């Protein structure tokens, strides 16, 4: 059992943010609760009207993120606003449609079968999914998990425990069957955390695919996007959370990770496959991912002293009487990471209207920090970095501290020249990668990611395309440190599913990653998944999600040459487009930047088995057009090559990986 009781004295003198690694010693059960249906999903999902063979219903919305009938149906099951689902079997395509409440969906049977499967329900489920599993309701005192395996995150249970099958329904997932599995974490909390007025929560960096969270047998929350992090607040679970020593005060956090469905047409894995943190903050504190240091210098292009623009989002769980008359100050310190030298300082008192109130919204404070010396620029050749720290002082007490690492550069997208880094023309050359690797699945250690980055640099790459989803945070740290730029890509697209849940995921990705100097552009979606019945609706929602937290520092794009809402993107992404496509686009849009964001997908990595003229030249050549920013999505440096190695050979190789920055 994890216990923090021994460190109480050090943690609260004075109260400040405490972050504890929480990814170790989870008890794990492969497979779902015995009472779950065979195909997993939410546990309770009944579509009373069978729409098999029906023509496409009127007023339904395309959900292009689902690639099988099962994925389409289960995704609809989890969304209480989804009343209709329709999808083709894999052999007939990968089209999924959902019909939502208040959309006046009408369905008609055809004389001949449409080959589509589907279902309809007239009443929204309440609750949307089961919360009464025996694995979930068992308290910390239960012996239910005594014989379960003990695992550490990152953990991919599909890769570790799955047995290969010949079922074509699993061929997109490497012929490994998908399911739901369970994790239980036993822990104790310091008594002080119950009396200091602070807030306790657990932050998961990634659980695939649908996570349902329980504390001491009680349901707390759920999270569906398997590629974004989420925070579970514990201290407000009144009557459920326990503090102090002894078995009577023990806690257990239970996670049901439903990976029985997904959103990709590649191996996606399943489980708590990214790090986890236990966090305790003071009552008034900086919001998670709430500190933004813009990676551009405000005055650099004007030839005057450098200024750094910072934004801090704060919130409070303290009563108004305890904060009204107390001075609040934000102190900023900027240090050169290489030398440790302090190069900027600012003390910024907060006005009364900038102090958050209990029950009120969080407040964003903007400030300008003047650099005492000319900043060193981040570049591919010299990835200079700075550590920026903000301290929130309440009265005379340093209540909360947060630090981020960033670099300062300018990245300009245009047509003449096409792309400039720090004011100089720069040609983008890069690889696309998937969020998995042979022998490891999606639970990829940091050291392996470093090897992938080093290998791509060795082959002349200067940009990494996150395809087709945001990655683990440490990947971006490594890109910053090694001088490799990044196209950061959202996964699920479409603004109507789950009351806008996909647009929220876009917002969360940008807010999490915006401090990274390496990121030069955001992508809404990938290829087919960009297609929507109402493209403008989604385009505007996703543009707003990005601009709302990045403030226009970077442009937005989509990897789809036929993207249906062109006014919502700043840079036109092109997937597998050829030179005539770019020539025609530039002629019609002479001032809009374009990029070859994906190309060169070949049936084999062996040069002797493919034609260089057809596989490489005709797809990769557009990247050298003078008004095209480059080619950044060549498939693929690592996925296929390493997936050919058995784990017995891969593991010794990983131990020999070089460990250096460049």
CA-based shape: globular
User: Which structural class do you get from the secondary structure elements?
Assistant: alpha+beta
CATH architecture designation of the largest domain: Alpha-Beta Barrel
Radius of gyration from the alpha-carbon trace, in angstroms: 25 Å
For the sheet with most strands, the description reads: 8 strands, parallel, barrel
Brief sketch in words of this structure:
The chain has four domains: 2-27 and 144-281, Galactose-binding domain-like (Jelly Rolls, Sandwich), CATH 2.60.120.260; 49-120, Hepatocyte Growth Factor (3-Layer(bba) Sandwich), CATH 3.50.4; 284-406, Immunoglobulin-like (Sandwich), CATH 2.60.40.10; 411-655, Alpha-Beta Barrel (TIM Barrel). It is built from twelve helices and 36 strands.
Description:
It is a single chain. The two termini are 40 Å apart. Mean pLDDT is 87; it is low at 5-14, 602-610 and 640-662. The chain folds into 4 domains: 2-27 and 144-281, Jelly Rolls (Sandwich); 49-120, Hepatocyte Growth Factor; 284-406, Immunoglobulins (Immunoglobulin-like, Sandwich), CATH 2.60.40.10; 411-655, TIM Barrel. It is globular and about 75 Å long. Helix 5 runs parallel beside helix 6 and helix 7 (501-513) packs parallel to helix 8. 16% of the residues lie in helices and 30% in strands. The strands form 8 sheets. It has an 8-stranded parallel barrel with strand order 29-30-31-32-33-34-35-36, surrounded by 4 helices. It has 662 residues and is an alpha+beta fold. Strand 35 (594-598), helix 10 and strand 36 (628-634) form a beta-alpha-beta unit. The longest helix has 16 residues, at 535-550.
